[in-house]
Amino acid sequence: MKNFSLLAFLLLFSSLVNAQDKKWTLEECVNYALENNISVKQAELDVEFSAIDKSDAIGNFIPSINGQATNSWNTGLTQNVTTGILQNQTVRNFSAGVSAGLTLFDGLRNFKELQRARISRLANEYSLDKMKDDIALFVADAYLQVLFNKQNLEVLRAQNDVTKEQIERTLDLVDAGVLPEGDLLEIRATMADEQQKMILAENQIQISLISLAQTLAIQDYQNFDIVERDYDIFGNEILENSVYDIIERAKEERSEIKIAEANKELAEKDVELAKGAYLPTLNAFFNYNTRATGQDQVIDIIPDPDNPTRQIGFVEGTNQAVLAPNTIPVLGSPLPFFDQLSRNDGFSYGLQLNVPILNGFATRNQVKRNEIGVLRAEYRLEQAELDLEANVYQAFTDAKGAFKAYEAALVAVEAQEKAFEYATERYDVGLTNAFDFSQAKVRFENAQREVLRAKYDYIFKLKVVELYFGIPVGELKF
């Protein structure tokens, strides 16, 4: 038993350590977000909801069947259903029935409802696709921001290592009388400034990690971390296409246009549904009913021994009384329950035609409202196309500009690196002061950071263009 407990503890401890050591790749973050993000889940619920609407539309073609049964007890002065006489009694009555109805024609509204439900589900699926694209880009942006902050911290630490080495060399030069002590103070001030920047950079990493974890709906912020890798630039050949080619491709592939087109079709179906109210509706119906009672049944009718006859009139002229036999029913035990149901059942069936004549202009006004809805949907589609053109053009321009900025940053960092090396050589032999050396070092550090910023900015903007070009999220390369 002790060995089993020890083994269980070791397994649990191992799983906790592995969970804490796990580092997320960009692909894992995107996939996890697509499965767990709240906005994506809500969009998936919309798709499921539209599937239910489609099921409702299909159900309109199926007959409606309803059954009902009532079993009641009446106590007091009630009518005897057997004799028709009011009397004080307690009696049980049972009735049951089945009704069925089927719409044979309703102005084709059932068919239009089914078509509308199919379009609505398609529109929700397009909305889900767009939501996934947006979430994937948002996660990628947040992920690259974390990566930039981490690599920025590495740059700061590398520069700080250089500063530490420089402090040692400066101390030797000050002791040798080559440099004044003020240069040592300047380098130490640079060291303090770099340490402060590293603290801020570490804070920025934590903040960006928390932001990414919240996007993924992960609550364990403390142990959340990403894989530290350097992403290369892939797919820049897409910028060799004409921006107009990308715009046309986006109109064919992007969900924004498909959503607007589907909404226009929905508006047109609403007009057709409203116009269907002008036409007659034809319904078929069938009803079956039966009943049973706990009252005694009439088994015979005999003359009343106490009053065998009764006067029903008189002969005009002679005033001779006209008599008729007076009878009384002989009651017996009620029939068995199922025998009563069999004897007392009945059917009714037929067709019902409803012809709209005047309904206070409600149908006409509804048609007009839906026709206005079609115009609005057409304007939204036109606006969606204009917005897509503007967004693609902006994304294409941003990506090209980001690439040029990245190339310029590479040239700048190379120049600043050489300038820093030259400044270091001059400082080591006492030909420049610590302030000038620190300025050269800061410029080189800023150039390195700008390369990182420009690189990840270009990667993200390039992926935006790729999405507009119709490349699925799962096929984006980083």
TrEMBL record:
Subcellular location: Cell outer membrane
Stretches of the chain forming a coiled coil according to its record: 250-277
Organism superkingdom: Bacteria
Record keywords, A-Z: Cell outer membrane, Coiled coil, Membrane, Signal, Transmembrane, Transmembrane beta strand, Transport
Keyword Magnesium among record annotations: no
Gene3D superfamilies assigned to the protein according to its UniProt record, in alphabetical order: Outer membrane efflux proteins (OEP)
UniProt key word DNA-binding: no
Pfam families documented for this protein: OEP
Principal subcellular localisation of the protein: membrane
Protein species of origin: Gramella jeungdoensis
InterPro entries (alphabetical): OMP_efflux (IPR003423), TolC-like (IPR051906)
Signal sequence range: 1-19
Protein name as catalogued: TolC family protein
Similarity comment: Belongs to the outer membrane factor (OMF) (TC 1.B.17) family.
